[in-house]
Amino acid sequence: MNNLELQKTANEVRKGIVTAVHAAKAGHPGGSLSAADVFTYLYFEEMNVDPKNPDKEDRDRFVLSKGHTAPGLYATLAQKGYFPKEELLSLRKLGALLQGHPCIHIPGVDMSSGSLGQGISAAVGMALGAKLGNKDFRVYTLLGDGEIQEGQVWEAAMFAGFRKLDNLVVIVDNNGLQIDGPVDKVCSPYPIDEKFKAFNFHVINCNAHDFDDIRAAFKEAKETKGMPTCIVMHSTKGKGVSFMENQCGWHGKAPNDEEYAIAMADLEKIGASLN
Amino acid sequence: MADVKKIATRESYGNALKDLAEEFPNLVVLDADLAEATKTGIFRKAYPDRHIDCGIAECNMIGVAAGLSTVGKIPFVSSFAMFAAGRAYEQVRNSVGYPHLNVKIGATHAGITVGEDGATHQCNEDIALMRTIPGMVVMVPSDDVEAKAAVRAALEYEGPVYIRFGRAAVPVINDKPDYKFEIGKGTVVRPGKDVTIVATGICVDSALGAAEKLAADGIDAEVINICTIKPLDEDIIINSAKKTGKVVTVEEHSVIGGLGSAVCDCLSEKLPTPVKKLGMQDVFGESGSAGALVAKYGLDADGVYASVKAFV
What we know:
The complex is a heterodimer. Chain A has helices spanning about 5-25, 30-35, 35-45, 70-80, 120-130, 150-160, 185, 190-200, 210-225, 255-275; strands at about 60-65, 140-145, 170-175, 175-180, 180, 200-205, 230-235. Chain A is an alpha/beta fold. By secondary structure, chain B is of the alpha/beta class. Chain B has 13 helices and 14 strands. Chain B has helices spanning about 10-20, 35-40, 40-45, 60-70, 80-85, 90-95, 125-130, 145-155, 205-215, 235-245, 260-270, 290-295, 300-310, and strands spanning about 5-10, 25-30, 50-55, 75-80, 105-110, 135-140, 160-165, 170, 185-190, 195-200, 220-225, 230, 245-255, 275-280. In chain B, helix 1 crosses helix 8. The mean pLDDT of chain B is about 95.
């Protein structure tokens, strides 16, 4: 996909996110929107995946370690054709396919996740499994910048760096906000890039909303041998919805009907500007 | 009795992993800097490329095992029970149990027979923790024969399994030509009619010893070996309780949440029967030799004998 197609697709993913969270009357729009571009790039450009054959053995794997942003993953999977978009309307409802946090039984979801800090370890295990089995699939995992306060993240990072898992890309969505406030006011994870460097990662800083930058980062990751890559995505929480941008309060709250209308109008406007 | 062959079930575990490696080519073994103690070092020596030392980071190790299982490996993850079931409980629950992955946990140094290391390392709570996880199979082998059989059964089974092994050498009691092992099946190891003693792990031997002493007093005890705590062989317990009307449970574990609780869960619903639970009575352990500790907490043959005698 060229950048314009990616932008259009990401905008559809954002509509899916706010639609799903609005319908569920609960969920996490802020961090889903901040990662919408990277979700889109992964599933529409980067990863070797096939929605018609979601379990094919040689596929690339993705683990959403920051599992609360499931609406972002689900909207992307629906956009890609893993399941009908209508499923987004039953997110979090009793008996629904789409659980509040990712569940491995959902088509396209490679690992259950949501308890922070755990997804990265599973991704590391998948990457190690590829190495042990001489398979050439790649593994991607997306973490929150608040999530990396979890100690398990650094256990996993130490292991991945030591094992030289160059088939692994750890992406940190650095939108700067967590539930209780700005990450650097709650318990600062900074400097993120230097920390991963110290754990023997190749580190790339990237603008999370610029597809040239994203493309270059993933290309560089693929070319990096002998060490895993960490891409620090500098993002805007709530990106694309005017009243959600950079607002802590939209971490885990659903828009009401009126707010939903404004949000969709914002995204329609962005969509129109891309035509 | 003549000299009885003794072997620690952790040793049996390490040997079984090595012996089954060719038959199960997808088997990989993970450890957290305890390979010498957990005896996965036996496997490592024979198959160094299939042994992954994760360092002292048990939570990550469980997650790595989860990831490995999703790409076709059968990981056996090892540490002391305290760290495998205790420290990494939530990783086991959410990264292994919830997705129902094919991860096997071989937890060694369980219970008070850890001995001299003392209370910090004597995990008397792991059975309780693991049996609350939906879909988790929980096994506690009683000797070398059963430990090896349980490892094989775990590899043949698709889904998460927790197996509890001990540090101390224990008598081999199942070395019989007709011995068969099946997940979820208990065994009557001594038939009797006056009282049922349900035991697990190393306490099966204590229960058999106690039954001999009880016989001398004219009390005919039936001894049931429950290796699989979950799923529990309810039929074997109910059938025995129907006959004897009194049940004693024996385990090297807290009386809260372990075998005793599992038996009570079953009997209270299906055949209310008086039950006496022997085990750690809601206390921490302490340093001492394994034998001295087992005696102090009333889990050797003499202790079980005295408790059963007082109960019947």
